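seq:
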Amino acid sequence: MSRRTDNHHRAATICRAATGLPHRTCLGWAEAGLIDYRQPVPDAEDEAQRLLESLLVAELADGLPESERRDGALFGFTSARPARTGLSLGLHPAMADRVLSTVLPRIDEYYGGLRGVPGLRIVPAGRSWP
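struct:
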């Protein structure tokens, strides 16, 4: 096995552990050059999606203290399914309300401005909200 193939499998293994996606999906991304072992999750296709994702993480980091972590759910998420055009996140049931109240856009009358992540929307998938 070549060193390049080893690196692809290494990146795919890290990606699978980080996202829960099948190894073959992550290996395909590695072979396409979308991920490597230093960046095991592909970037979004466009700048607006990358900005939205970074604002989401910044808002969660500011709004959820480490003490609110449940069952290893970092920022209240149990899974992350990245795609080039978006990101699907699985919420821990005990953290869902807290996470959504932190990140969904809303006017805060006490603060006097917009809170949450502008442009963030949740989309139903069957009987759930991914």
